[in-house]
Amino acid sequence: MNDRVPADDVLVTADQRHMIHPLHFAADHASPKIFTAARGSMLRTSDGREYIDGLSGLWNVHIGHGRRELAEAAATQMQTLDYASAYAGYSNAPAIRLAERLVGLAYDNMAAAYFTTGGAESNESAFKFARYHWKRLGRPDKVKIISRRYAYHGVTMAAMSATSLPNYQTMFGPMVPEFLQVAPPYPYRWTGNGDPGIGAADAVEEAILAAGAGTVAAVIAEPVMGSGGVIVPPDTYWPRLRQVCDRHDVLIIADEVITGFGRTGTWFGLTHWGVQPDLMSFAKGVTSGYLPLGGVIVSKAMHDVIQSAPASEKFMHAATYSGHPVCCAVALANLDILENEGLVERARVQGDRFRAGLETLRSLPAVGEVRGIGMLAAVELVADQASKAPAKGLGARVMAAATERGLITRLRGAADGPPASGDTICFAPPLSTPEATLDRIVQIIGESIQAAS
């Protein structure tokens, strides 16, 4: 990395005066960390300190920081074709090659990709794809979208209405109409009788029947809930949900923004359960965060409906940067690294090892559950292990202690029910993170929980 860069009070002052940050709250930004360099799984700040990147930036830097191959791919493409519109009647080679490659990597029933600039835009687009599909088939009343509590799908207006983490909605309501939420497949906090996978899938069916199957367009769901606390569903959940949606002619949108591109130890998350969606939204890992890119991949059946549309019903959805040639070129180089270096398989193997390390923390009284899949993990904190009483406020102290010890990751704060939950520390290190660094994350979190308890 670069040599130490002295902290710049002028830069901090300018930041506080002129930038509005995501999730902005002035008190949280009183002493910001200004990142100046990154390499592998490490971040450096302007005061010369180094931190482990325990969340791959924001769940997205799969291959690690500072890969020259992606910088060279961007530079080469910028010098060749910096930008060109991909509106109907125009195209470019990187976008074409990337669409073809993504369809080849995705589920067998997939046919074609539409490109966006990020996850929220991908989900917004997926909602429009679903509504368009049913209108084209003469069922215009099928417009409702069902999501799950603890879901995160972005915070643009429709995506925020599918997101079910109330803090993101409080100051921006009312929500977009026709969005419904149901119970999540959250085994640790399941309060119903029987199998939580079956119960949570049946909750979707109950919502479909209550709303009227003729009014429900799609269910959107993360294969594994990410920002909501890395909630891994029981093995019974996804097959049952697919059956429910097929029975009522409801599409499944798999939100693979976090789970895609090897994060769970397979290219895409639903592979773990042998289920295929009708649409798949993606972003983050497709470029490892080096440039903004996302998209939606649609099934062959949905693509046929689009391709056969008359002029009066053409797909009037668009964005200036859809199919951006530089972003697509970087994505192709990123996929090369994921494939050539075996990082998808590595996420499975090293993810198992990482979680085994986190499991050793169960002896700490504040640790209620350790969970995860692939290179995704979480530690849920409790006030009492026996009752599972949620810990509230402890997570912030743990995070502060961890940061002081050289680890940056993310907290999902305690949520009131149903189901109530405790503060949860989430992890998603780069897929390339060395074993010694993964071990150090476990050590830091253990020390931090003890220090903060």
TrEMBL record:
<dbReference type="InterPro" id="IPR015424">
    <property type="entry name" value="PyrdxlP-dep_Trfase"/>
</dbReference>
<dbReference type="GO" id="GO:0008483">
    <property type="term" value="F:transaminase activity"/>
</dbReference>
<dbReference type="InterPro" id="IPR015422">
    <property type="entry name" value="PyrdxlP-dep_Trfase_small"/>
</dbReference>
<dbReference type="InterPro" id="IPR005814">
    <property type="entry name" value="Aminotrans_3"/>
</dbReference>
<keyword id="KW-0032">Aminotransferase</keyword>
<protein>
    <submittedName>
        <fullName>Aspartate aminotransferase family protein</fullName>
    </submittedName>
</protein>
<dbReference type="InterPro" id="IPR015421">
    <property type="entry name" value="PyrdxlP-dep_Trfase_major"/>
</dbReference>
<dbReference type="InterPro" id="IPR049704">
    <property type="entry name" value="Aminotrans_3_PPA_site"/>
</dbReference>
<comment type="similarity">
    <text>Belongs to the class-III pyridoxal-phosphate-dependent aminotransferase family.</text>
</comment>
<dbReference type="GO" id="GO:0030170">
    <property type="term" value="F:pyridoxal phosphate binding"/>
</dbReference>
<dbReference type="Pfam" id="PF00202">
    <property type="entry name" value="Aminotran_3"/>
</dbReference>
<keyword id="KW-0663">Pyridoxal phosphate</keyword>
<keyword id="KW-0808">Transferase</keyword>
